[in-house]
Amino acid sequence: MDIEEKKQKAADWFQNLRDQICASFEQIEDDNEGPMAGREAGRFERKSWDRTNQSDGAEGGGGTMSIMRGGRVFEKVGVNISSVHGTFTEEFAKNIPGAEEDPSFFATGISLVAHMNSPKVPAVHMNTRFICTTKSWFGGGADLNAPLPDSYDTASFHSAFKECCDKHDPDYYPRYKEWCDRYFYIPHRNRARGEGGIFYDQLNTGDWENDFAFTQDVGRTFNDIYPELVRRHMNESWTPEEREKQLEYRGYYAEFNLVYDRGTTFGLKTGGNVEAILMSLPPEAKWP
User: Fold this and answer.
1) The one catalytic residue among 125, 158, 168, 188
2) Helices marked H in the chain — which ranges?
3) Is 90 exceeded by the pLDDT of residue 95?
């Protein structure tokens, strides 16, 4: 395949994964029998956006936001896909592999953040992407963000991603778990953002098909394990005190995304859709 075929194949997969995840989450809404079962089951609403094009057409692309709000289980969840191209600023290009020689870029990917009604159901983040400059690579991962951590849930989440990684390279899981722990850390709070998972970037082993297969398996693994964790707890009740802990935890989550998250920076620096970029922020949060 030439690079254009690779771009299209990756973009098609991210769209397909989006459809699978949205269907899975809507089924959870239908199956819920918990404290908010009297609500109407949540459904995703899709909104497409186009990147502002310059007259020469050098900047372009766009994406689709899929957002569910106020559901029985999901208080707010976004599953966004995008494919954009353009030119990095001279300053930003210095930080991107292969962009100093030529600042042109292409990026396609999926980004998901779920904030739950119940503090007993862990929030979660997942994204995978394919980026091209004069070089090309895959990146992404998934990490669990529980306001009230549960050791069984955490172990299940990590076990699923270890199995996913081990199928491709036994070095992947320890490397990507440590990378996740290091990346999703809030220095000014001296604490991790959540219970970790895996995080990888600049994956280019020289075998594009294998790297793409791994990235696909990361998405499939997420869509297998996370709904399982949700279903474990979605029918349980919770206390006002537990809700307060959840809201305070969300404050830490928001701090990380606004101060340290590279995806937020990348989207804002490349003229992305602000609503889509800040989709990750919780609908309600508190600071102690």
Assistant:
1) 125
2) 3-31, 90-93, 151-166, 172-183, 208-233, 240-259, 262-269, 274-277
3) no
Superfamily assignment of 3-280 in CATH?
Coproporphyrinogen III oxidase, aerobic (3.40.1500.10)
Contact 255, 189 (CB under 8 A): yes
Contact assessment for residue 176 and residue 200, using Cβ atoms and an 8 Å cutoff: yes
pLDDT digits (tens, 9 = 90+) for 126-165: 999 999 999 999 999 999 999 999 999 999 999 999 999 9
Specify the residue for token string 């707890």.
233
Rounded CA separation 60/65 (Å): 17
Q: Is 115 a catalytic residue?
A: no
Within a 13 Å sphere around the CA of 23, how many CA atoms are in the beta-carbon half? 7
227-259 pLDDT, tens digit per residue, is 999 999 999 999 999 999 999 999 999 999 999
Q: Please name the residues in contact with 27: beta carbons below 8 A apart, sequence gap of 6 or more.
A: none
Query: Is residue 131 within 8 Å of 106, Cβ to Cβ?
Result: yes
Q: How far apart are CA 171 and CA 146, in angstroms?
A: 27
**What's the token pair of residue 81?**
């896909």
CB 97 within 8 A of CB 136: no
